[in-house]
Amino acid sequence: MPYLEQFMQQWKAYLSNEFTAHGFVYLETKDGDFFDIKANSLVYFSWLRTTSRADDGFDELRDAIAWKMLERQLRELAKKAEKGTFDLVSKLHLEENQIQIVLNFSYDDEQHIVYVS
Fold this sequence. Notes:
This protein has 117 residues and is mainly alpha-helical. The protein has one domain. 62% of the residues lie in helices and 7% in strands. It is built from 3 helices and 2 strands; from the N terminus they run H-H-H-E-E. The protein is elongated, with a radius of gyration of 16 Å.
């Protein structure tokens, strides 16, 4: 699923920017990009939880849930993008590389989750 990889890279770029803005370092390992993205996401969610309203009653388990929910959203959007791209290419006679999908990420501090649009 090429769009999932593209969307994960967009999340990674968002994370890297957030880390830089708040004085953190995005850590990369030899375990691969997916592992690095997940590990850094959990660090980010932990930091968000402790610096926002989400700290009331949430713990590390909620960080893992926030990651799963984000991952699920990215997977679902990737499926939709695959189908939508195919439809656009066939109906409008576009090249696939002419279609660019840019995601927006927003944090809900009451729910302690990231929404993707």
